[in-house]
Amino acid sequence: MNEIERICVDKDILDFLKVIYFGDINDPMEAAADRAYRDLNRTIRYKDTPPDVRNCLRKKVIALFRVEIPVLAKTVILDQSDYDIWHYHICSQIRTYYRDSGVEFYYGQAQKWLNMTMKYLYICGAYTFDGIFHYLHVPIDNYIFHVVQKEFGIPCPKIRWSRWDDYAKQYMDYQLQLRSKIEGISPLRWEFRFWMQEARNLNQCPELPQEDYAAVGRYPPSRLWSKAKRASLISKML
Question: Taking the domains of the chain in order of start, what are their residue ranges?
Fold first, then answer.
């Protein structure tokens, strides 16, 4: 399996798709982090947390990314463990921000926010992550659980990803299992391709058994169908 397949794309089309997906991309860090936040915010139990506090917390995380991600991109990362340590510290900081403000927040949510931000920064062209792309983590969620179980036979964990709060025994253990199965390609590159493949499968077979919808996540079938159509449309345009 080739690491990268390069094709020529009309720049106007590419820019159009970026704006559709990310909105204003004049500030790529904010655009990527905000889009990533929308991927997980349904799992956050804010309860009585005022809107201004919620907004402040989101901005604190974006500010953290503004400092740490550019430094990471310029740093010589010697091996996977160096990146994993950096990843743990960033996730811990995000979790601390929320917990200190009285919001129930978990490592599972932090990894989704960080991993999707890294992925989106790469997608929108803000960073190429040369030298470290092969260390980047696969964003973990119910959708990935479903794909990994089908492709590699790794069982879906009993605890929802958004409620994982043992970084080593839950999150990293799953990442290590996944890395051991992926061959000849970077983990995030694998995620790109198999996520799209699964999206196309949903597009072609909307009448999935109920247990398949449950394995993918808590989305109702109509929402999954919409998500799959959008992913398939973008992939066809490219």
Answer: 11-237
